[in-house]
Amino acid sequence: MQLSDAIQQLSQLQRRQYAYQHAQVILTLDAATAAPSGTAEGRGVALGILAGEEHRLFANEEVGKLLAFLDERKEELDFLTRRQVEELLRAYRKLSRIPAEEYMAFSQLVNEADAVWRRAKVENDFPAFRPVLDQIVSYNRKFAGYYDPDKAPYDALLDEYERGMDTAALDRFFSTLRERLVPLLQKVAAAPRPDDRFLHGSFPVEEQRALSEDLMERMGLDREHCGIAETEHPFTTNANNKDVRITTHYYPDNFTSSMFSVIHEGGHALYELGVADELQYTCLAGGVSMGIHESQSRFYENIIGRSRPFLEALLPTLKKRFPGRLDGVDGAMLYRAVNRVEPSLIRIEADELTYPLHIMVRYEIEKKLIAGEMEAGDVPAAWNALYQEYLGVEVPDDRRGCLQDSHWSGGSIGYFPSYALGSAYGAQMLRNMEREVDVWGGVGRGDLSQVTAWLREKIHRHGSSLTPAQVLENACGAPFDPTYYTDYLTEKYSALYGL
Amino acid sequence: MQLSDAIQQLSQLQRRQYAYQHAQVILTLDAATAAPSGTAEGRGVALGILAGEEHRLFANEEVGKLLAFLDERKEELDFLTRRQVEELLRAYRKLSRIPAEEYMAFSQLVNEADAVWRRAKVENDFPAFRPVLDQIVSYNRKFAGYYDPDKAPYDALLDEYERGMDTAALDRFFSTLRERLVPLLQKVAAAPRPDDRFLHGSFPVEEQRALSEDLMERMGLDREHCGIAETEHPFTTNANNKDVRITTHYYPDNFTSSMFSVIHEGGHALYELGVADELQYTCLAGGVSMGIHESQSRFYENIIGRSRPFLEALLPTLKKRFPGRLDGVDGAMLYRAVNRVEPSLIRIEADELTYPLHIMVRYEIEKKLIAGEMEAGDVPAAWNALYQEYLGVEVPDDRRGCLQDSHWSGGSIGYFPSYALGSAYGAQMLRNMEREVDVWGGVGRGDLSQVTAWLREKIHRHGSSLTPAQVLENACGAPFDPTYYTDYLTEKYSALYGL
């Protein structure tokens, strides 16, 4: 085989993988946004077959030979081709290590687990979900051994969602959070609460839709390449760097829910829109990890979107969209109201300060489940005790406790930490950005272009061509250090609550 | 090979084809309804690759052997499996007869032709389109020889869109139309025109959307399996018999355009929704031909939707949706207004009576182009002369003349006649239906369920398991006879215009 032919074959393989992923993205998007309710069966048949076709395309001996050939001559490859070979080889080895029948059985289990979990949640019936969770944990433990037999199982799982992250690093991270945030939260909870009554009332959905347009324009989201639709739970998906879609959900009695979800998803979208063209149609297109992705969405949502300069600049637009609803509200009042801290039961409704504590609960439980130190049956009691300890709230039932999230029933263990990591990454990025860019001057004029240009240069354009740690160091000028995050939260909330 | 294994392989092959077609349907639907404007390139890459994958799946020697094996033992197959083998073998032979490089070159040409045609239409520049049309004609002539070397080329093309139809039958059909409709139209044009001023004015789009819901409910379109979206040009598409989507376009100054497009597309949708479950995920799922499909859409749109009983029953709903706009309008007035005849230049805006004359113009030109009796350069003059002869209108420019339709630039020659055939099929079906069902009693009560049940039994459920001619004979109780259609039009419009 000639090297140039092999490189050509590698490119063709990735283009074909892209086509299957594109189809999967759009079919799933259509399902959530436009498809009539009774159409799941035929779509399931199509998606299952297409996944099988994509699997067949990749998991075969010729691909193994091609990748081995290129790997042997990797010194002769340019940087991006070498990175493609590394990533594909990693995926290939992983796939070939998991016995096909185990993978199929796990897929089957996860499919069924979704319905079991949904019913268990509605009926507040953890015992119904318990055996499924037990099985999912044991599959994850087994797969961890396939992923990397030299690592502790939970480390191998963490590495799937955030390459290079492990229990040692996360223990340090979360213990810093515990030491700094739990006492901070206790002080905040004892202080008088800001008034946010003006955020509740009647906010016509048509005006909220127009506000979404305002926000997307303000964020520099190019509407020729970024669509918006409505779904129960907001999300971002993308077919490539020229075709990104965000979704939101409008509540007629509350405009901030959709407003911050648009800014959050807009952050994800800017990341995908900013990936370099040269990475398109390869395995390096797209954001590098969940943690880095969340760093972008949470940076825009919380660090920018919930900052006083941003809110001051946005206030006239809000007053125009909702005439009479915000009379007498000034920037300081709006800033206090949208940053009101409220220890609560539900992760996805949590404020910026309590959010990482919700994640910490899940981290501790996952770690013990995978280590075999806890069984599924022990989860509710552990959950409730940790919510009491970290957040100071009493969990009244499992529906609002350990049954609230879809991640475990979806088969994912080791995914949650990336949410908290993303927030912490963002705080460290901010400090470095502030050295190079007049962040708050721009934001205060309603101009996010410098912020986005900086993130694009340091993070977005690289897609998956660098590792998460490299991207982070690019953006922070130093390795990851969680104290930036705890300092950021301490300063912001101490000032807000006059502590 | 065991017969049972071969049948199993046949089923798997068709399920895989289904998955690719499903993806193609949804990506194309998304492109027309939701995708941002700048997303065509990446979608084009994905669709091109997926089409290539589907082609590779089918056009290979193993499939040829499988089909040959099953064909040899077709006496042992059940009816539906035998029909699948017949259809797939036909497609396989066709594909294997067209040299791959010619097929690729033609696909390339058609891709480029679309842009050339669009620009030529905007700029009223037929000479720019002429060389492309010449090439498309010559490819079609060549392909006709591959499709069926024993047939005259235009007959082979017609057979692609309406199996079993040929020039001899269409000449009889169109000469009947010419003899009966051209003089009828001349009389209508000389008569006083009905008043339709009340159809124009201000009709809020929100109310028109609600009217679409009313109409879909009235037609018995199951919203769990049939969606509606908005596009520039209305169409119907379906992924399977449980996932059908229609589209429409709302004009704020005119509610009948969208109203009749919803009824028309609803007719297509009922056909696809009515295909039997046992045909799903096989090549026999879906409507059997363009002509039969148009028979269903035009049946609902014109024969039912523009009938007096239907309009009488609908009028209270219209008055409720558009308060004050239809005061003093009664069923007779509405019936006359929506059936106003207006010889015009544009096919897609034509009324029921003049519509087939638009098709007749295209038929005569296509026939001569493919026979080599006319060149692309002769088209404008021929077009304009025929519009004068059949419709009595002067064509002021090619933009509103021979450049108006996308079919030729899309590579399709022989497609147009199915539009006129569909209308004629519907008229003949009506007479047979009236013998078995109280059509107008039900329609007059706003109840279309008996009409739909009859069509479902005679036509819809069969999908492509019968030929178009068999379906038609099923529904009409006799072979195709165009005089039902000319009688229907003559009676309806003579009464309407008091001739």
Question: Short summary of the structure?
Answer:
The structure is a homodimer of 499-residue chains. With 499 residues, chain A is mostly helical.
Structure description:
- 2 copies of one chain form a homodimer.
- The first copy, chain A, is built from 20 helices and 3 strands.
- Chain A has helices at residues 3-33, 40-58, 61-72, 79-97, 100-122, 126-147, 153-161, 167-190, 205-218, 256-273, 290-304, 308-321, 331-338, 355-371, 379-391, 417-436, 439-444, 449-458, 468-476, 483-496, and strands spanning 226-230, 236-240, 243-248.
- Chain A has a 3-stranded mixed beta sheet, sandwiched between helices.
- Chain A starts with a helix and ends with a helix.
- The A-B interface holds A 15-16, 18-20, 22-23, 26-27, 29-30, 33-39, 41-43, 45-47, 49-50, 53, 222-227, 229, 239-240, 242-243, 245, 280-281 and B 15-16, 18-20, 22-23, 26-27, 29-30, 33-39, 41-43, 45-50, 53, 222-227, 229, 239-240, 242-243, 245, 280-281.
How would the blueprint of this fold be written?
Two copies of one chain form a homodimer.
Chain A lengths: L2 H31 L6 H19 L2 H12 L6 H19 L2 H23 L3 H22 L5 H9 L5 H24 L14 H14 L7 E5 L5 E5 L2 E6 L7 H18 L16 H15 L3 H14 L9 H8 L16 H17 L7 H13 L25 H20 L2 H6 L4 H10 L9 H9 L6 H14 L3
Parallel strand pairs in A: 1-3
Antiparallel strand pairs in A: 2-3
Structural class of chain A: mainly alpha
Average pLDDT level of chain A:
96
- Uncertain segments of chain A are none
> How are helices and strands ordered from N to C of chain A?
HHHHHHHHHEEEHHHHHHHHHHH
Q: Portion of residues in helices of chain A?
A: 55-70%
The termini of chain A sit apart by: 69 Å
Largest interface: A-B, 41 and 42 residues
Largest sheet of chain A: 3 strands, mixed
